[in-house]
């Protein structure tokens, strides 16, 4: 049951992902999708919109008729109590028709203010009284701060237990994010080095070229800190820094991730602006085209204090990571679209190859998450010729080049995980609460002090100067993400 079935997420991600699962035989014939949204549509009109979304996403020529016949529509205002009863009737009729054994997944692809109300109605009106399993999938944002997240959690926990709640963080469905664990725990050459004796710093970048587009109203209440750092960035940090789990089960992995979030040094007062930098884009040029400043975007306050860029230095106070800075940065209207992790290893004790006043490049392991997927390892090797000089070489693994198939879309993997009842790649309440507690301290300071220098970076750049200074203070610099691209062999 998809709440918000006429929305952008349903059309761009959910319908095409279900279709690919169906094509691959991962979805049997025994399924039904109920689309719920306010608009009055007939079943036929709804099925047509599903077909259009599949065609737009991938398959223009396939025969979709059998697939879309499983889709049904229920026009329903989620705040109106009376329409849940007819939804319940529809669900139980479909259950008998397709022989579904009372198994239900409720996917809330709607604005978060409705999550609590829907969950309460599902229980009060009996939609969760089923013979099989019941699962709730919810989109971000999960609350606005730790207090609102607790409130929301309380509401949904009345209707669903923690192990029935699947909080989506679509980064956790990405192929290369899932690969972090494998690279770390399946390679004898990395795991022994994965600590403060050998790693000098870690850099996570998630940059976008797009601006806020038409999402100004939402973004004004969120900003980059809540939209990206609280969830995606901290989830990647947890995967990079966690201890090896004793088994690859949901509980064991989650418990190791939670320990990382608990070990993150909390920031308060002056420490916030020492460790974190905020930015907001001004106008600039992207692909030779003039683009407006954030404050001139639709539905944005012309004197907005909202950050569209965040850079920060995280410290994890445990035996493995004490003293290793983990730098993160994320922003809109940046020079390039890229999500990458750079692990910089410490310099060797002595440089023997200094003849031409050459400094040796440090070894880098780069995990490319998007748009290119892959891994690169930077080593030093002999420069060909008479002299013994070192030169950097790059060992590269590009995911697409090897497999020759498109990696499954994150939503496709996560939907399938949810159907199988595997919650490993979803966020547990403890992780949500810890990451909000960390981020809340930063927003408190930023909301109380207006950023006088906004806008402080030009569109089409890699963010404000202060983000570079954050690393320079420690003797580091951001590795330029475009130079490191997986296809720059
Ligand atoms: P949207 O505005 O495009 O769609 C909202 C849907 O909710 C529509 O189907 C609308 O009919 C329905 N709706 C609104 N009010 C209703 C009511 N009172 N009763 C019944 N239906 C109602 O939103 P979206 O972009 O699809 O996003 C949905 C959720 O997914 C949000 O929580 C968003 O933050 C999250 N999300 C979206 C994307 C994306 O790519 N669009 C990515 C990540 C997370």
Automatic annotation (TrEMBL):
It catalyses: D-glucose 6-phosphate + NADP(+) = 6-phospho-D-glucono-1,5-lactone + NADPH + H(+). Substrate binds at residues 170, 174, 208, 227, 332, 337. One of its GO terms (biological process) is pentose-phosphate shunt, oxidative branch. Keywords: Carbohydrate metabolism, Glucose metabolism, NADP, Oxidoreductase. Pathway: Carbohydrate degradation; pentose phosphate pathway; D-ribulose 5-phosphate from D-glucose 6-phosphate (oxidative stage): step 1/3. It comes from the Bacteria. GO terms for molecular function: glucose-6-phosphate dehydrogenase activity; NADP binding. One of its GO terms (cellular component) is cytosol. Belongs to the glucose-6-phosphate dehydrogenase family. This is Glucose-6-phosphate 1-dehydrogenase. It comes from Cytobacillus solani. The lineage of its organism: Bacteria, Bacillati, Bacillota, Bacilli, Bacillales.
